[in-house]
């Protein structure tokens, strides 16, 4: 057993498995900072995640009294969970350091920022993690400018490939 990783075995391939990604969040919000948070999950929730079933489309993070909760994230019931199954959209506690929670809460209070879930994945040790972002909402014009810039970058890359 190694003291560095707490006795956990690291996966040999080193590939972290993305379960669900909230791509709409990066379109709607200008993400300024990201944090990795653990999740408090029940056994059937983990089994459902291992099957790759989760949806972060309508989820958001709520901060209250030195705690953070993931609200409205859809982790469907595990098909073989019988009476031990979980509710699909129940609130789930996020595991963050106290200073990270206070930093997020201060940014939400002061700057009117929003905390949005970006990606749900398994890390190298097989533990479910949630990448959350601190962002500000984009206006419609900002979204159009961002889309134009992305299209131009794609066209420029294609032209450079064609020219050699």
TrEMBL record:
Required for rescue of stalled ribosomes mediated by trans-translation. Binds to transfer-messenger RNA (tmRNA), required for stable association of tmRNA with ribosomes. tmRNA and SmpB together mimic tRNA shape, replacing the anticodon stem-loop with SmpB. tmRNA is encoded by the ssrA gene; the 2 termini fold to resemble tRNA(Ala) and it encodes a 'tag peptide', a short internal open reading frame. During trans-translation Ala-aminoacylated tmRNA acts like a tRNA, entering the A-site of stalled ribosomes, displacing the stalled mRNA. InterPro entries: SmpB (IPR023620), SsrA-bd_prot (IPR000037), SsrA-bd_prot_CS (IPR020081). Belongs to the SmpB family. One of its GO terms (molecular function) is RNA binding. Its main location: cytoplasm. One of its GO terms (biological process) is trans-translation-dependent protein tagging. GO terms for cellular component: cytosol. This is SsrA-binding protein. It is found in: Cytoplasm. Residues 142-164 have a biased composition (Basic and acidic residues). Keywords: Cytoplasm, RNA-binding, Transferase. It comes from Candidatus Micropelagius thuwalensis. Residues 139-164 are annotated as: Disordered.
